[in-house]
Structures are given as C-alpha cells and as structure tokens.
Design a protein that fits this description.
Elements: E1 14-20, H1 23-37, E2 42-48, H2 54-63, E3 69-70, H3 80-98, E4 102-106, H4 110-121, E5 126-129, H5 144-154, E6 158-160, H6 163-171, E7 179-181, H7 185-199, H8 208-213, E8 218-223, H9 232-244, E9 250-255, H10 260-270, E10 276-279, H11 284-293, E11 296-299, H12 302-310, E12 315-317, H13 325-329, E13 333-335, H14 340-352, H15 354-360, H16 372-387
Parallel strand pairs: 1-2, 1-4, 2-3, 4-5, 5-6, 6-7, 8-9, 8-11, 9-10, 11-12, 12-13
Helix pairs in contact: 1-2, 1-7, 1-16, 3-4, 4-5, 9-10, 9-14, 14-15
The chain binds uridine-diphosphate-N-acetylglucosamine and uridine-5'-diphosphate.
C-alpha cells in the first residue's frame, strides 16, 4: 500500500503487526504475542527488525516465536542515524506487504520509534505498550526519552504500566480516554519464565558451575549498557566493580551486553579477577536464576529495575534519573549514578548494614500482576469492534 493511504477496512480477525528488534522488547512482547496468537479475534503477524541479533534470538527461541518478517538490520557498533534510516525503510516495506489493521510497538528503542513512524506514514493506528514513561530529561536515558515522546505523539492506544505513566501522558495533552493503565508485560514474562523453569528446571541449570565456584559468597548481579554511560561512565562502573570484588565475602556475576562499547572496557578492566565472572548474555531463564541467587542487583537497565523489586531484590540504579520512579518511591530501588566512589559506598552499606538491606529488600511490585497482556488484548478487541 503506498504512503498516505488508509488501512483497508476488514472484519475480524483483525490483523495485528507486532514490531520489535531488541532483547527487552522481545521479553516484554512475547506474552502479548502468545495472547494474540491464542485468540481467534486476531491474526498476529510478527516482524523483527533484528536491531539486536543474538540477544533477540535468545528470547525468540525460549518463547517459541518464529517471526514472519526478519529485517536482520544489525551492524557491528551501529550508529543511531544509520540504524534508524534502515529501520524506517525496512519496516515500511513490511507494512506494505503485510497490510495490517494495526501495529503494536513497545517501549523506547529505535525500532519502536521507527515502527511507529512507518505506521503513521501509512495512517495505520499504532498501539504503544509501556507508554508514558518519562524521566523529564532528554539526555537520560538517551535517546530513549525522546523516542517515547515521539511514539506518544502518534499512538492510537497508550498502554501505560502505572498511574504515574498515565498522568505523564495526560499532562502532555494525550486524550485520557486513549490511555489505559494495564501494568507492565514484563511481569507476565517473569511469571511465564518462572512457571517454565518450574516445569523444566534444567532450563536454568547452566549457572551451576558458577554457583559452586562462588558458594558461600554474597552475589552481586550486574548489567550495564546505556549509551549515555559510554566512556567515563563505563570506566567508573568498572572501577567500582574491581573495588567491590576486593572483598573476600563477595562475588560479582556480570553477563556482559554484546555492545562493543561495553565489552571493551569491561574485558580490559575486569578479566581474570577471582571474584568476578564476566559471562555472555544469559537467556531469560538463566537471567531469572541470576535474579534469584543475587543479593543485590547493580544495573543501568530499564527492565531489571522492574524485575528486581518484584522479586524483593534491592536494585542500585547506575543512572542520574529514571523514567521508572515507582521502585525508588517504594524504597526498593535507589539511584546511585555512575561515580565509582558512590557505587562502592552504596553497595558496602547494603552488604554491611542489615537494617539498610532489609529496608530495601521488600518484595514490591508496582509494575503489574501478570495479567497485562490479557488486558491489552481485550482493549484491542474493544477498539477493533468499535471501529468495525
Ligand atoms: C538498544 C536500545 C536501548 C535498549 C537496549 C537493550 C536504541 C537506540 N537502543 O541499545 O534502548 O535499552 O538496546 O539492550 O534503540 N550487539 C550485538 N549483538 C546483539 C545486540 C547488540 O553484537 O545481539 C552489538 C552490535 O555491535 C550493535 C551494538 O551492540 O551494533 C549496539 O546495539 P543497539 O541496538 O544499537 O544498541 P544497544 O546499546 O543495544
Ligand atoms: N536480561 C537477560 N539476560 C541478560 C541480561 C538481561 O535476559 O543477560 C533481561 C532482563 O531480565 C530484562 C531485559 O533483559 O528483562 C533487560 O534488557 P536490557 O537491560 O538489555 O534493556 P533495557 O531494559 O535497559 O532496555
């Protein structure tokens, strides 16, 4: 369908094109895809940009999703502009071929933003999962804060995880009737993977060797990948980890993101230390296992800020601001920035002060009850029915 034309009107089942490209989008969308595929009111077409390759494929495999379209766009150390240009043209072509009634995107990545824009250029309604997250600072997280705002300006339905996210959208003059508080699908994903491990424990057994090596030590789980932390931020994070690992009672397990800007620094600074395991990105069941055995999570990730509080794990967030203030408000997450001195001091407090630890280690789950995908599918069905 050429640009500028509206989508063909079609009776049920409605054809929904789900577009994503990175690990966190895949984790947060597989529950929606499972729900859509199980529902005869919908025909679910899956398009991956493969903005990530190996880290995306890890999720697709575990969730049993075979994409209908795969753009395979990832390039080593890709730039934002080249990536975005490829995404926009590639996703537009898929939309012209697949001729969906609606398009779903998730979160704040380049794929989500370009997917929404390509849909908008075709006058296709685009529905936004995890809408309304705002840090209030366009440089933190960068470029995600602006990606979210761009998508929010075009979306038809906004699936906000919390009231805070809903209020942020309403403040930006989004029609309140189009915003629905649904919870975050990451909790659906966490429930799903926990149940899978319950049925098949071998799915998460691959950490056994490390668990034996670090038996008796207090485990700190680390993830880091934010673009705004490249350079000095990553150096500081590495310095902090080196210092923490000097403690004989502590061990760090760090699945290192495949971004070369992360790997170079971490490999150079942290390889060969007795108390540090630099490992390849974990598939989702193994990451769930890491969350279970860790005493503390140290991260700059978005998703981990949502998962760790749900499991009662204190999470120290290596950022200046967060678009997920709910964990901080509840006292289960703390913003510590990227200064090595502050990170070491905050970790030491949690390790040495039982009361401080207990105050943070409360299971708290502001992000959903595991029923978010079901809600989203019902809202989509209502929308499609009203438009028929
Ligand atoms: C992207 C998202 C970010 C999200 C993060 C999740 C944007 C602008 N950024 O950042 O919002 O939080 O994913 O992890 O959309 N690489 C591989 N294999 C992989 C994945 C990445 O080799 O499976 C390497 C490649 O060299 C690639 C680089 O990492 O060029 C960067 O990937 P990219 O998706 O551009 O950025 P992320 O930092 O992963
Ligand atoms: N995750 C994973 N394996 C890892 C590290 C993280 O499966 O080795 C999962 C984690 O559980 C969370 C998601 O990946 O659901 C977060 O992805 P990432 O930190 O890459 O992106 P962000 O959430 O910051 O956008």
């Amino acid at each position: 369908m050429p640009c500028g034309m509206t989508a063909p009107s079609r009776t049920l089942p409605a054809r929904i094109l789900v577009v994503f490209g990175t690990r966190p989008e895949a984790i947060k969308l597989f529950p929606v895809i499972h729900a859509l595929k199980a529902d005869p009111r919908f025909e679910c077409v899956v398009c991956v940009s493969a903005q990530h390759r190996q880290m995306l494929d890890q999720v697709l495999e575990i969730a049993g999703i075979v994409p209908d379209h795969d753009l395979d766009v990832m390039q080593p150390d890709q730039t934002l502009d080249a990536l975005t240009a490829n995404l926009l043209t590639g996703l537009g072509k898929v939309m012209d071929t697949a001729r969906p009634d609606r398009v779903i995107v998730q979160g704040d990545t380049a794929t989500a933003m370009a997917g929404a824009l390509a849909a908008y250029y075709r006058k296709l309604p685009v529905d936004h999962v995890e809408a309304g997250l705002r840090s209030g600072n366009i440089h933190h997280p960068w470029p995600e804060e602006v990606n979210r705002k761009i998508i929010g300006g075009m979306a038809s339905l906004h699936f906000a995880p919390t009231e805070t996210a809903r209020n942020a959208l309403v403040k930006e003059n989004v029609d309140p009737a189009r915003v629905h508080v649904t919870g975050n699908t990451v909790i659906d994903a966490l429930h799903w993977v926990t149940a899978e491990i319950g049925h098949e424990p071998s799915l998460a057994a691959g950490l056994a060797e490390l668990e034996a090596r670090f038996a008796g030590k207090r485990i700190i789980g680390v993830t880091s990948h934010r673009r705004e932390n490249f350079g000095e931020g990553m150096e500081q994070i590495a310095t902090a980890i080196r210092r923490i690992a000097e403690r004989s009672d502590t061990a760090v397990i760090f699945p290192v993101h495949l971004n070369p800007n992360v790997r170079k620094v971490m490999n150079e600074r942290l390889s060969g230390l007795d108390n540090v395991a630099l490992i390849e990105p974990l598939d989702y069941p193994h990451f769930a296992r890491l969350l279970a055995i860790a005493e503390i999570m140290l991260t700059d990730s978005g998703g981990v800020q949502e998962e760790a509080p749900a499991l009662g794990k204190p999470v120290l967030v290596m950022r200046e601001t967060t678009e997920r203030p709910e964990g901080v408000a509840a006292g289960t997450a703390k913003l510590v920035g990227t200064s090595a001195k502050t990170i070491v001091s905050e970790i030491s407090t949690l390790l040495d002060d039982k009361e401080a630890y207990e105050a943070m280690a409360r299971a708290h789950n502001p992000f959903g009850d595991g029923q978010t995908s079901r809600r989203i599918v019902e809202l989509l069905a209502d929308e499609v029915r009203h438009q028929a």
